[in-house]
Specification:
It comes from Mycena chlorophos (Agaric fungus). This is Alcohol dehydrogenase superfamily protein. GO terms for molecular function: oxidoreductase activity. The protein has 370 residues and is an alpha/beta fold. It folds into two domains: 172 residues, Quinone Oxidoreductase, Chain A, domain 1 (Alpha-Beta Complex); 144 residues, Rossmann fold (3-Layer(aba) Sandwich). Helix 4 packs parallel to helix 5. It is globular and about 65 Å long.
Amino acid sequence: MPYPPIPPLARQFNVGKVRTIEAMTIVEVPVPRPRATEVLVKVKAVSLQYRDMMIIMGRYPLPYAATTVPCSDGVGEIAAVGEEVTGWQVGDRVMPNFFLDLMSENVKTDEIMNSAMGAVMPGMLQEYRVLPARSLVKIPDHLSYEEAATLPCAGLTAYAPLLDGPYRIQAGETILIQGTGGIATFALQFASVAGAVPIVISSSDEKLEQAKAIGARYTINYKTTPDWDRVVKEITHGRGCDRVLELTGNLTLQRSINAVKLGGLIDIIGLLGGRMSTTSVPDVDAIVPAIFKQIIFRGVYVGSVEQFERFARFLAAHPETTRPKIDKSFPFEEAPEAFKHMWGKTHVGKIVVRVNEDCASVPGAWMGGW
């Protein structure tokens, strides 16, 4: 079936000088044409990250443009290819890596690490986006566009430390996972697949019940049990957990240090405690426990195209036990409402925006033209 013609104009959301969710605006812009080594992607779906929220609200600690298109994570279908592109064709279902220029985890520069979309570079909350062909990964056949949209940041951020690289989680290890958002939910699924023992903390008993259904062995409500680090020690018979997925930052880091075993590992992923919290943030001394508890502190910042390709193969090999959990999906025009839903912190799993309404169809099926 011939691919439909590309329209001259397309819509995108912009974030400008006023940094609020309410100030997000839809504008029409010319559809760009890909250069020799690029492809034009018709965006089908995007998923929301807390990073996107911080950028929209002007609280992100790294550089971002005065006016930008939000959202780092989006997927779609190739609508056109540059004349030098090989390996991709019109109609292919693709997802760009979070860092467009990070090909390998072994080759990193400041310039490469600034190639994430939605900050300095325009993001994916638009109907068409030109992307480097080398930054793309094929969407696993069993996933819809909505499900695939959850993978570039949240999915890969959980996969890279747990199932790739030098500190892969092992069967029987205990892992403390903070929360029930996108990264946490993926981490829970992956830890369960690996045969580890997940302990999940959350502010809601309802969320914890959902975590149990996904694979949590133990759950702790940190609202009713603020000294959750003590409970983790009890669960592990005084030893402490093998590793912590630290998703909050300094608000919880001290308790994570208390909860982890001697010689344990803390994967530091989140900084919400310092940027999105209205409460005071304590200073935490990590030097003493790093020495005397011999803790390994490791920062995790998503991953490379090579890792993303391995991640996609892993998902294809475990299609049901790793299927992304979507909390709620919104139409394109209601993207601000999607961010308000995220701000409400009631979700379990990922929040998705449908940029084109055929995005939830059977993978690979064409549902008509524009």
